[in-house]
Amino acid sequence: MGAPVVEEFERFIKKQTEARRQDWDARQRFWLEAVRQLYADVRSWLQSHVDAQAMECVEVPRTLVETDLGRYEVPALEISGPGFRASLEPVGIKVRDALGRVDLDGLMGSVRLLLVPADREAAPHSRRRIDDPPALDTSACFKIVTEAPHFRYLELTKERFLAALLYVVGARAELPEE
Asked: How many CB atoms lie within 10 A of CB 86?
């Protein structure tokens, strides 16, 4: 037995490591493109106010460090206007039961946006580990996560984003549930 088994084991480990690296690379590319699309949507929803110089949307660089991915750059989107400031802050790819997360943060609160399959309406009841991610689903899109105890995923529309923005800057008492 001896040496051939050791060599076979070494080849197996190398193959598994390369496959895992390729999977994380694909997930990272998908995540970065989804974040870019999210920011493009937000800019289009706020464009008339930016054009009127009533507010600004500015990308600022962020560096994330995640296991299996290492250090990488992803922008945040700062949104500001008279008397308010909020930002879309990327959290990362390694998120339980999702393909990524971005938080909308303001002085008065935070709203989580998860990158989940387009047809998913609620958080699954799973005990999936963060380093055992769900399958890469190219239909995935960002959805607003409602508060506990019943985590639901709401389609991210212009109206819901504006309501969330008002909520995190303190101009709205609660986040809409529908």
From this structure: 24
